[in-house]
Fold this protein.
Amino acid sequence: TNGSAPAVPSDQYDSLYLSPVTVGSSTLHLDFDTGSSDLWVFSSLQAQSSLVGHDYYMVDPAKEKQGYTWKISYGDGSGASGKVYADKVVVGGVTATAQAVEAATAVSAQFTQDVDTDGLLGLAMSTLNTVKPQQQKTFFDTVLKQLAQPLFAVDLKYHAAGSYDFGFIDKSKYTGAINYVNADTSKGWWGVSATAYSIGNASTSATVSGILDTGTTLLYVDTPIVKAYYAKVKGSKMDNTQGGYVFPCSATLPDFSLTIGGVKQIVPGKHINYSPTSAGNCFGGIQTNDGIGFSILGDIFLKSKYVIHEMGSTPRIGFAQQ
Ligand SMILES: O=C(CCCl)NNC1=[NH+]CCN1
């Protein structure tokens, strides 16, 4: 069976995208995350005070995988932990009958405060799954064999609802050719590298190695590239208080592209104005990857593309223009 689930922006800035998922008998709104590999949910195991505003999974002790635990921390410092159950999970009509459902006993403040997010559904490699004593499969790995094709496609949109397709490529969601490159899955992520970047019409050769990550809001690349980009934005500056590059909200932002597999993958300048700050300027969608060690091609990069993640004998990534 194939299927498709909507990806709805959680707020007016596309901070994250939420998709409806049936877990047991509840429908929860989860953040599909190609940068991690745990399916975890807010649950009845948490203190009631943590559940205010959230939909949550009502655990059934009969379904518990006894002695199994999980604990995850994300690149942005957020995290969660808990116990593990085996239950039915349905995404867009695709059913995993005994999926490992990681029920939270504790979650970090970033998650408690975000009342729209009821958990995450990881779509990176199962080798990054945190469940002990036995690592568990992602939803995608669990349903892989029932899909017509071993792939899912990501169609995130700018300030609009997109979708995640499982098992098929939807020709109505892109124009032109799909450009495929091999994925580097050796570190558990959907790794990809670029051979050049461009700012406006000027191209520069450079190696940009990074991961595709729907769970990260912005586009994080090497500092020299970020400096070169904002040098083209009048009035831009690095603002440590805001935690990154900011600029006047009236600024015209140049397009940015990464050349992947010989094809320029363009991010429209408009997409790089992420949100207004509390200081009256605007926060950039491109920021430095200082301290991360690689680039993260997050939602700012993804929301102009239809991106196919194919787990064939050789994992591949396909890029097409929306
Ligand atoms: O953790 C990361 C970065 C991997 Cl290098 N992405 N996924 C995610 N989920 C919630 C916050 N960020």
